[in-house]
């Protein structure tokens, strides 16, 4: 049987993640795709804790821990230093959560993209500021409970379209991915590695703690998000060529929502409206892909 996922394990046991953490799966798969010639730039987020206390690390590659807003700019600086040393082979990976990407780090990310800095930026998206207490971010979906959008006052704005923002920068490659589809994820990581300039991958990484879900449902949720069209899998090249990489099955959105108690307050009419929103957004995506 031909293996579709690299066999070598770069990320090691002994990390400090919660049970069922989607971020650790994302890191494991991305490192498999990039290989050991990788340097990580990680701002304040769950993953700065998950790797373990200094001088130990479960990630298996060099790490630069940086300020919350500077994952991209620190990565650009590391890459510049490597080039001075004559190293053109090592991949510099900026790795940040949705809060450090969609909100706090978007300035540095936009700057790197505009300059075309030779880095790969990965956002592992668990849809809230999980490391500091499950507060809302601009990646939190409409209707979701967080500690700053409590029951009775859930988030009333849609999730920010980060891929559209990065595609507007005309970078060489950006894509969505899910820990529920590792082959698709790793293929995109390898494609990004071979692309020039700034590359961006947005990975859905369920958080059982913040989503109020069972730890053993992480992969199921990551797959359902794709199957229900909540989180489509697609890629964009040079801001112009849009391509769906995994067709969604059209599974009803309720199948995804009912596994997460952060949505348990939603009424029938709320779920119906959410289903309509998902269908409308997926149709917009299909048109972009058709017109590319």
UniProtKB/TrEMBL annotation:
It comes from the Bacteria. The keyword Glycosyltransferase does not apply. GO terms for molecular function: 3-methyl-2-oxobutanoate dehydrogenase (ferredoxin) activity; thiamine pyrophosphate binding. Its EC number is 1.2.7.7. Keywords: Oxidoreductase. Residues 62-203 form the Thiamine pyrophosphate enzyme TPP-binding domain. PANTHER family: 2-OXOACID OXIDOREDUCTASE (FERREDOXIN) (PTHR42897:SF1), PYRUVATE SYNTHASE SUBUNIT PORB (PTHR42897). This is 2-ketoisovalerate ferredoxin oxidoreductase. It comes from candidate division WOR-3 bacterium JGI_Cruoil_03_44_89.
């Amino acid at each position: 049987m031909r293996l579709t996922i690299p066999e070598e394990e770069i990320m090691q046991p002994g990390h400090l993640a919660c049970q069922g953490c989607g971020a650790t799966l994302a890191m494991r798969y991305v490192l498999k795709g990039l290989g050991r010639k990788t340097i990580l730039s990680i701002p304040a987020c769950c993953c700065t804790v998950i790797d373990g206390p200094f001088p130990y690390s479960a990630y298996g590659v060099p790490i630069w821990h940086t300020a919350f807003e500077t994952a991209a700019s620190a990565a650009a600086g590391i890459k510049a230093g490597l080039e001075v040393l004559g190293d053109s082979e090592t991949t510099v990976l900026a790795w940040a959560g949705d809060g450090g990407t969609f909100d706090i780090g978007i300035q540095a990310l936009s700057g790197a993209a505009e300059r075309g800095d030779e880095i790969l930026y990965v956002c592992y998206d668990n849809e809230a500021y999980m490391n500091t207490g499950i507060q809302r971010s601009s990646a939190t979906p409409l209707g979701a409970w967080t500690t700053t959008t409590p029951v009775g006052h859930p988030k009333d704005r849609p999730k920010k379209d980060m891929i559209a923002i990065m595609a507007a920068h005309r970078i060489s490659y950006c894509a969505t991915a899910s820990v529920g589809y590792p082959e698709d994820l790793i293929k995109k990581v390898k494609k990004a590695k071979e692309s020039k300039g700034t590359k961006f991958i947005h990975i859905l990484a369920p958080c059982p703690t913040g989503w109020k879900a069972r730890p053993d449902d992480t992969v199921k949720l990551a797959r359902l998000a794709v199957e229900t069209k909540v989180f489509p899998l697609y890629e964009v090249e040079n801001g112009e060529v849009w391509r769906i990489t995994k067709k969604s099955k059209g599974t009803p959105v309720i199948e995804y929502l009912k596994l997460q108690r952060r949505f348990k307050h939603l009424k029938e009419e709320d779920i119906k409206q959410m289903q309509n929103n998902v269908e409308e957004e997926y149709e917009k995506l299909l048109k972009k892909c058709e017109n590319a």
